[in-house]
UniProtKB/TrEMBL annotation, chains A, B:
It comes from Actinomadura alba. Keywords: Oxidoreductase. The keyword Oxidoreductase applies. This is Aldehyde dehydrogenase (NADP(+)). Residues 23-466 form the Aldehyde dehydrogenase domain. Pfam families: Aldedh. The keyword Plastid does not apply.
């Protein structure tokens, strides 16, 4: 950057700083309502086209980088984000109101994720190498040599999310997994944190330059309007889209992508209420502790997490009052917290009012009000019964923020009916004590059909970035239920298999060459190759 | 069935023979134009609903069958198809006009495919088992135990294809891979071969009964209209669709699936012209032989193969006349062949007439006419130059049948321009002699971006069913470019990952249990588990 931490308000298009041509906008400090400098220029159609043209030009070279170069590049991005130090932390705090400890935790997750994908790249398993050798004497016809590997789809558009300004934004999971796959990335930063986006974007660009990669490997577009996103998704050079955000936003991108002459996949992580099921023995033994722990999960990040527990189903009468009392007490002493944007705050307030006004839904507790902050996300806890929940489909909807509805469920039959009517979810959580094992065994096959991750005796907030995690799930949790946007499997979203038949030895890529020069895992006639 | 080979015209809905309620239709022998007995009842909305309800009921039980039971079931289906013997061969011949040797070859491919998926099921690699063990002493938080596996999406609708009455039909690749994944299947048979569909459907149903599987594991619906397909794809119990057929048909299903309250994936294999690139040294050395071999591929199956070579690009002047002369001679002596249906015949005739009428496109040869057959698919060969090809986008379109266009390409630059403007393809083929290696090296990265399979010094027709094959490709070759509809990877289309966090040991499924009781390949912390 021009000087450490000096923000310019420019778009980062390949190696060039470009002023936006379609108006300007500023970030707002949600803690104070103050508008932040500098002004950011919005990308117009020319800037979108320039970024995608560069990405297309970069594709041929970037996708053929060797594994070590690509891995080292991802590690450089992580190192450079770390090196931004407090300049980055303070800008994130100013643009989002997220407390320091969470910002630092999110930064560690973000850089850890980049380093994990570097390891994934080196490992080479993602190349999906398979060889079915020729069988010259097969009858009636000889069998030809076939070799298969994964190649990247092409340039990827990534949309930054409001609630994870680092981990799901410019150098977040979508970007890391796309770059790992060999796909150039054009990011559309979230307009709530353009300065954070610029800082991280410059770190990423510097890593591109350090490793001599084509400049179009990465560009950062910014803008507060919707037209830039539509322009990006409908650009013919873009071949896949990663998005984390609202259901309406995700569905708009899905529709735009489906309407292209060449439709492309949109990996949108959209909407989830993350139901929690407290089974009778757990409720009886631990009602009070679970009530307290539930609210700790609910109020994390002012409830602005994709995995925030928005519904709790309590089965059984014994202990339910303890659970409700403890939860109500925890909510009543929970402070309000600034929400990420005024739009999110307005939607939260409307959602809470809608819940409060629903017949047979009782407001159990509200958090502490705090007139000193500009956008108070005041926690809210509601309670109803299973019949009411089944009768009001609107009670299934996500209220993004620290609001949750506890549903007292009559019996197992009603619990199963509820589960079977829930929409797709990122997570489903079960609290089960020893005597609940039978009930849990009945519940589990239903829950795995509606959720990407099933949690036992824990809480859905807090997503591990590893190999076995799934951050995904059936519609409307995501637009692509067979994928995950967190963890090492996320790379698969940007790859497709290609098969080579009777490829001359001098043209065979290293990952498929005889003798396995890369030393990667391969299937030969369907059996793992020893190396 | 009621007696071996005795066709009833009934729909096979679970264990019941059900008469269709929405009219009736009959197959036609394309060799004679004769209408064949029996009449088939068309499925109406009630029958569609009944089949999907049974499939949904079967899902919970079928998906939890142990690997050995599921594998043995698939093998039984293969054995029972083999046991149909000549009854099946003759019915296929009567309904499609396909010669005996090809029917027998397709039957072997179909049963081999079922047995291959049985081996895939037993192998267990498709379960994608991953374990990230807990780390209790990690700071700042303990790491929870996470275990991931693949589960099936739910009941799958499969549409039979006209051109592969066995291999892409009732018990074809889509059905075999969906059943392997643990998904019940509702097949909509192709109306051109309802008797073939009934014979194979009864074999499949008998295998369901033999293994004590839920009756809704398989149903066969039939019908000649479009409404049954729409009803099936928009039925909320159906969770994925497999289709092989026309671009318009595939896109209609994609649109119907996208418009559902819960959109679902459609794996449609649609349209491909399978370009062949003959490089200068190959043209010079082998022009004549290549011309003859090309026409052998073109006329296979009367050109009614998804991988039929509809475009040939010849680079260089030396040898091109030999290539054209040999190809023209081969076409001129190639017999006409009955096409699969009158609709396909009409579209073929129109396509050939369109090519013949295009300015600067010359008709090089037509096959032998045969007034004795009802629907003569008379081969047709055309020639043009690269400038004309680039100027007429309609010349890129598929003409389904034994018609092909040879394009004389001026130079490498024009060849690259052409490749970059081609739509997505199932295959791309290169003929390269030793001196062509440099040109092939430049061409390969372009071809792999537009095709699912790149063939060297061979022909695209003939698709191996193995581990390393890809029968897929960028849009419009398919609606889902990251998948294949042939080969062992096809199972992945019907699966999605689920992650279990801190699952109690007594609830852990065998594939994720400590000690690896199934002995399958698993990743532990991203590293292959030894067993």
């Amino acid at each position: 950057m021009t000087a450490e931490g000096a923000l310019t308000g420019a778009l980062l298009i390949g190696a060039a700083d470009v002023p936006g041509s379609a108006g300007e906008f500023r970030a707002v400090d949600p803690r104070t309502g103050a508008r932040l400098e500098p002004a950011y220029g919005e990308a117009g159609p020319d800037e979108v086209r320039r970024a995608t043209e560069l990405a297309q030009q970069a594709f041929a070279g970037y996708r053929q980088t060797d594994l070590e170069t690509r891995a080292a590049f991802l590690e450089s991005v992580a190192d450079r984000i770390d090196a931004l130090g407090d300049v980055l932390v303070e800008r994130v705090r100013a643009e989002t109101g997220i407390p320091r400890a969470r910002v630092e935790g999110e930064r560690a997750r973000t850089t850890g994720q980049l380093r994990l994908f570097a390891a994934v790249v080196r490992d080479g398993d993602w190349l999906g190498a398979r060889i079915d050798p020729a069988i010259a004497d097969r009858r009636p016809q000889a069998r030809p040599d076939l070799r298969q590997r994964m190649i990247p789809l092409g340039p990827v558009a990534v949309f930054g999310a409001s609630n994870f300004p680092l981990a799901f934004s410019v150098a977040g999971g979508d970007t890391a997994s796309a770059l790992a796959a060999g796909a150039p990335v054009v990011v559309k930063g979230h307009p709530a944190h353009p300065g954070t986006a610029e800082l991280v974007g410059r770190a990423l660009r510097a890593a591109v330059e350090e490793h001599g990669l084509p400049e179009g490997t990465f560009s950062l577009l910014q803008g507060a309007g919707h037209s830039i996103g539509t322009a990006l998704v409908t650009d013919p050079r873009i071949k896949a889209v990663g998005f984390t955000g609202s259901r309406s936003g995700g569905l708009a991108l899905v529709a735009a992508a489906a309407g292209r002459p060449e439709p492309i996949p949109v990996y949108a992580e959209m909407s989830s209420v993350n139901p929690v099921f407290v089974l009778p023995d757990a409720l009886r033994r631990q009602g009070s502790e679970l009530g307290t722990a539930f609210v700790a999960s609910l109020t994390t990040g002012a409830g602005q997490l994709c995995t925030s527990p928005g519904l709790v189903f309590a089965l059984g009468a014994d202990g339910v009052e303890s659970f409700l009392d403890a939860a109500a007490a925890a909510v009543a002493t929970a402070p309000s917290a600034p929400m990420l944007t005024s739009g999110i705050q307005a939607a939260y307030t409307a959602g809470v009012e809608r819940l409060a006004a629903t017949e047979r839904v009782r407001t159990l507790a509200r958090g502490l009000g705090d007139p000193a902050i500009g956008a108070p996300g005041r926690p809210a806890l509601f309670v109803t019964d299973g019949d009411t929940f089944l009768a009001h489909p609107a009670l299934h909807d996500e209220v993004f923020g620290a609001a949750s509805l506890v549903v007292r469920v009559r019996d197992t039959a009603q619990l199963h009916e509820i589960v079977d009517r829930l929409e797709g979810q990122l997570t489903a959580t079960v609290h089960a004590a020893p005597a609940d094992v039978g009930a849990a065994r009945e519940l589990l096959p239903r829950l795995e059909l509606i959720a990407g991750r099933v949690v036992f005796n824990g809480w859905p907030t807090g997503v591990e970035v590893g190999h076995a995690v799934v951050h995904g799930g059936p519609f409307p949790a995501t637009s692509a239920p067979a994928t995950t946007s967190v963890g090492t499997r996320a790379i698969e979203r940007f790859l497709r298999p290609v098969s080579y038949q009777a490829l001359p030895a001098e043209l065979v890529p290293d990952e498929l060459a005889d003798g396995n020069p890369l030393g990667i895992r391969r299937l030969v006639d369907g059996v793992p190759d020893r190396h």
